[in-house]
Amino acid sequence: MKFATDVIHAAYNNEDHKRAIMPPLYQNSMFAMHEINENVPFKYSRLSNPTRKILEDTIAELEHGTHGFAFGSGIAGIDCIFRTFLRPNDTIVAVSDLYGGCHDLLQIYAQWGVNVIFADLTQPENLDKILAEHQVKMLWLETPSNPLLRLVDIELLAKKAKAHGAIVGIDNTFATPYLQNPIDMGCDIVFHSATKYLCGHSDVLLGLVAVNGKEFAKPMQMMLPATGAIAGPMDCWLVLRGIKTLAVRMEQHQKNAQILAERLEKHPAIAKVYYPGLPSHEHHELAKRQMRGFGGVVTVCLKNDTIEAVNSVIQNMDMIYLASSLGGVESLVNHCYSQSHSGMPHDLKIELGIKLGLLRFSVGIEDIDDIYADIDKALQTTL
Ligand SMILES: Cc1ncc(COP(=O)(O)O)c(C=O)c1O
Questions:
Q1: Taken in order 269, 327, 292, 151, is the CA torsion positive or negative?
Q2: Which of 66, 171, 291, 349 is most open to solvent, judged by the fewest CB atoms within 10 Å of its CB?
Q3: Is 196 a catalytic residue?
């Protein structure tokens, strides 16, 4: 099946659910048994739940994996991956251009004795040096990255890491399975903050993981119910509903994002636009090769790189609100320095390019002229 069909029909057989056309919500903590030790598929919802199972099977199918897992938040999903596969003295190499919350989480793992190495893997040879010096247990990628939308070469890096026996995991939140399938490029584990595009309506926190193969699935199947960070049935049901429109939403998100990026690139108040769909983007060629589109996030740096200018933009937009998430139908703006990357030390933020004047737009599916008019009006106040 093609993707737009798959998001509607994947992993759901209505014969298993009284022929209900849409996946039902099993809002139950437990399921009845007729006798002790009866072999029933569902007993207790921390272990498994029918609505969660449909969502887990859906993400496995959409990401071309073998097994899926659903968590109470994205970060709970990343934590479960690290908790399952990393032990004290193990080494994890993560892209330095990483979602702030994942960066913070890895600091905790470092306190527990995991050797955490951040590396600029936009230069793939940096991985060679690390692999030559360390026994790397896991490589953790994020591409396109949050907020600068930098890309790394998934296939190349996965090949290098796997040749040294490392597990390769990737945060595919920004691309979604609509734009890239990292398992097809050699990754073992694909993670999504489904809070973003997969849900698509800004009303759920949820993490999804797809793995490729029993050797990754079995330990996760032990860890998830044991640590209990599962997604609730209602949230799974909402994400299942959101996924059905993923293809049409992503198409409109990226159509709007491309137009916005092109217009903002010419705007007198803007110093730089970061969008992989622009020929000026440092990884435009890789994006064309690796992805099936460029996504719905556009980041800009104001010429007036001050907190006063940033506040003026935020206060003068009427439709676009300041909020810390992305991927919903509505356009939003995020001030990366003080929101998504607030936990990062100032010097590191500056080193990574997360300046005061940086604003990340999650471009919604409203009419692009209304989106641009709202942003343009606010930008004029910084001139
Ligand atoms: C790229 C990326 N990964 C992971 C997360 C964490 O997901 P959640 O907020 O659902 O826990 C986020 C959240 O902003 C994100 O943007």
A1: positive
A2: 66
A3: yes
Of the residues 90, 97, 171, 235, which is catalytic? 171
Average pLDDT, the chain: 97
**Ligand 1 pocket check for 293: Cβ under 6 Å:** no
Residue range 246-380 forms a domain whose CATH class is alpha beta
The residue with greater pLDDT, 60 or 354, is 60
Is it true that domain 3-243 has CATH number 3.90.70.10? no
pLDDT at residue 177 in the model: 98
Give distance in angstroms: CA of 300 to centre of ligand 1: 20
Which of 43, 46, 241, 355 is an active site residue?
A: 46
Q: Domain segments of the chain: what residues?
A: 3-243, 246-380
Is residue 171 annotated as part of the catalytic site, yes or no? yes
Contacts of 340 (CB under 8 A, 6+ apart): 99, 100, 101, 146, 147, 324, 334, 360
Model confidence at 157, in pLDDT bands (50, 70, 90)? very high
Nearest C-alpha to atom 16 of ligand 1 is from which residue?
99
